[in-house]
Amino acid sequence: ISPSNVTQGSLGDCWFVSSISAVASKPELVRKLILTQEVDPAGVYILRLCKDGVWKTVIVDDLLPCDEFNCPVFAQVSQGIVEPDISL
């Protein structure tokens, strides 16, 4: 993920987008935060996130909410960029 490829969805999540962009500039950090390194056929992924200074392990799935045009409402990579999706 390149910092310049992260775009905001229709939600007011600019705080999230700026955080993802900052982390994206450090590939070694991305590898430490995304514990599931391969595509999971079941769509389950394990991440490490820090909230209020406390690190937590979080399990997420790959089911993403979309708008009426079938576009993700959360942060995403720029159109036409083929990279792992940051929406997870």
Note down, in words, how this protein is organized.
- This protein is α+β, with helices and mostly antiparallel strands and 88 residues long.
- It has one domain (3-77).
- The protein is 20% helix and 23% strand.
- The chain contains two helices and four strands; from the N terminus they run βααβββ.
- The chain has helices spanning 14-24, 27-33, and strands at 6-7, 44-51, 54-61, 76-77.
- The strands form two sheets. A two-stranded antiparallel ribbon has the order 1-4. A two-stranded antiparallel sheet has the order 2-3.
- Mean pLDDT is 77; it is low at 80-84.
- Keywords: Hydrolase, Protease, Thiol protease.
- The active site is at 14.
Number of strands: 4
Mean residue pLDDT: 77
The secondary-structure class comes to alpha+beta
Give the termini separation. 13 Å
Characterize the largest beta sheet: strand count, sense, and whether it forms a barrel: 2 strands, antiparallel
3D shape: globular
Give the SSE order as H and E letters: EHHEEE
Unreliable segments of 5+ consecutive residues:
80-84
- How many DSSP helices? 2
Strand content: 15-25%
**Helical coverage, percent range:** 10-25%
Q: Within the largest sheet, what's the order of strands?
A: 1-4
Total count of domains: 1
Rg calc: 13 Å
Describe the protein's topology.
Layout (H helix, E strand, L loop, with lengths): L5 E2 L6 H11 L2 H7 L10 E8 L2 E8 L14 E2 L11
Antiparallel strand pairs: 1-4, 2-3
